[in-house]
Amino acid sequence: MAAFSKALELGATGIETDVQMTKDGIVVLLHDESLARTTGRHQLVKDMDYAELKTLDAGSWFDSAFQAEQIPSLEQLLELIKHTGTILNIELKNGIVLYPGIEHKVIEAVRAFQMSDRVIISSFNHYSLVQCKRLAPEIRTGVLYMEGLYRPWDYAVALQADALHPYKYAVTPEWIAEAAAHGIVYHPFTVNEPLEMERLIDAGAAGIITDYPDRLAEVLTRKGAQTE
C-alpha cells in the first residue's frame, strides 16, 4: 500500500493497479501471476489462500525499508481512496492465468464502496471487458493493446468500451481526434518522460498512465501556466 499512498502524496489524480485472484476468491493487487519475483515464494497467486498470502514479505525485494509490506486486497485500496476523489484504473490480469468470476468480484467490490463513477476497468483480455459491461454498464472500460490497431475506435465501440489504453507509441493526434468523434478517449501507457507526456497532452490524450505522477504533475502545471 506504500506505493499508492506515495502516489497520492505526489499529486496523482488517478491510480492504476493490476489485480489477480487467490484460491479462495479474494481479489489482490499484484502485477505478476507468480509470487516469485516479489516475495521469493515460487507459487502462483491462484494456488494460495489469502490468509497465507498475507504472511509473505512483499516489500523487501524493492527495499529493506518496505519489509513489512503485504500484498493488499482490492478492498484495502478502495478504502484508502474512497474519500479522495481519486480515479482508479483496475487492470484485470486474467490472460496468462484465467480467473473465472474475477469480473464479478471486482464489480461487487467497486459497487460496495459506491465508486462506480470513479473506476475504469481495463484488460488485455477483451472478453473480460465485454463481460464487465454486461455486468455493470455504468462502469467505464478501457481496451489495453500494444500494436497500431486499424481504426481502434471502431473496435472499442464494438466492445462497448469507453476508452482506448494503447502503448504510448500507438497514438497519433489524428487517431485521438477520430476516436473522440466516436465518443472514445485515449489513455496511453507507460509514459514516463516529460517530453513524451507533453507530446501526448498536446495530441489530446484525455489521461496518461505513468510511473512518475510527480513528473506529470509538473508538466501539467507548466503547461497550465503557459496557457494563462
Automatic annotation (TrEMBL):
Gene Ontology molecular function, alphabetical: phosphoric diester hydrolase activity
Domain GP-PDE: 1-220
Source species, domain of life: Bacteria
Classification via InterPro entries: GP_PDE_dom, PLC-like_Pdiesterase_TIM-brl
Gene Ontology biological process terms from the UniProt entry: lipid metabolic process
PROSITE patterns: GP_PDE
One of the Pfam families matching this protein, by short name: GDPD
Descriptive protein name: Glycerophosphoryl diester phosphodiesterase
